[in-house]
Structure formats: structure tokens, C-alpha cells
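Bumping my old thread because nobody answered last time. Still need a sequence for this structure:
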């Protein structure tokens, strides 16, 4: 009896998901992508506004604090966009890039360790921190 109930639930769930995907999936994905694009633009603009008169370190600190409050991938993406906008107008400071390893397309073990320990020092242990550290590497490589 329990097996029949479990199989019935699995079949009903599968049919329900299929119907949702057929009827609403494309619209949902389109709305999701539009919402994410809009959120990215807002984050970039907020970064530009905050970066005027700020330093590259102040921008980075703000980005790290954004991901500390929210651990989802969306927050990490928004924080990355914020940094791009902020760093685009912020004042560059010499100490910001000290100790940052050179950027490589394929991360080396040295880069991974540097990001991991830098995030530990910032008390930010999520994956988002390491992604923001990667952006820091890219920025420093262009200077």
C-alpha cells in the first residue's frame, strides 16, 4: 500500500512538473533572466554611485559586506556587479594590490590558497568571497 502511494506521488509530481515546464517554463525563465539583468544593472549603478570619492579598498569592503548578509549566488553576482561599477570610478590605491597573485585564466593552487586564506582573514568563508577575490585579481592584473 505504501509503495502505491509513493509511486502515485512520484507520477503526479512528474506530470505536474512536466505541465508546468510546458505551460509556464519559458515565461518563467524569460522573467527570471529579465529580473536578473535588471538587478545587475541596479547593482552596477549603485557601485558607480558609491565609488565616486571612494577608494578601491572601500569598494571591496562594501562588496564583501554584501555577500556576508546573503549567501545566495544572486547576491554574489550582484556584489560582483557592484564592484565593477564601484572600481570603475574609485580612486586606486597602491596597497590594494599588494600580495595579490598574478591572474591566470586557469586558477593555480597558489591562487586558490591565497583566496581561501584571504577570505578566512575577512571572516567570509562562503564561495562568494572567493569569487570576489578573483575579481580583485583581475583588477590588479590590469593595473
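Sorry it took so long. Here it is:
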Amino acid at each position: 500500500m505504501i509503495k502505491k502511494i509513493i509511486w502515485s506521488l512520484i507520477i503526479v509530481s512528474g506530470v505536474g512538473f512536466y505541465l508546468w515546464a510546458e505551460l509556464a517554463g519559458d515565461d518563467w525563465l524569460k522573467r527570471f533572466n529579465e529580473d536578473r539583468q535588471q538587478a545587475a544593472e541596479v547593482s552596477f549603478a549603485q557601485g558607480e554611485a558609491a565609488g565616486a570619492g571612494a577608494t578601491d579598498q572601500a569598494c571591496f569592503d562594501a562588496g564583501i559586506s554584501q555577500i556576508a548578509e546573503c549567501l545566495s549566488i544572486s547576491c554574489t553576482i550582484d556584489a560582483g556587479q557592484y564592484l565593477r561599477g564601484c572600481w570603475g570610478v574609485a580612486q586606486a590605491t597602491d596597497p590594494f594590490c599588494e600580495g595579490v597573485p598574478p591572474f591566470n585564466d586557469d586558477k593555480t593552487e597558489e591562487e586558490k590558497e591565497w583566496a581561501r586564506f584571504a577570505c578566512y582573514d575577512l571572516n567570509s568563508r562562503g564561495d562568494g568571497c572567493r569569487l570576489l577575490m578573483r575579481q580583485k585579481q583581475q583588477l590588479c592584473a590590469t593595473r
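The CA atoms of residues 59 and 86 lie 6 Å apart. Let me know if any region looks off to you.
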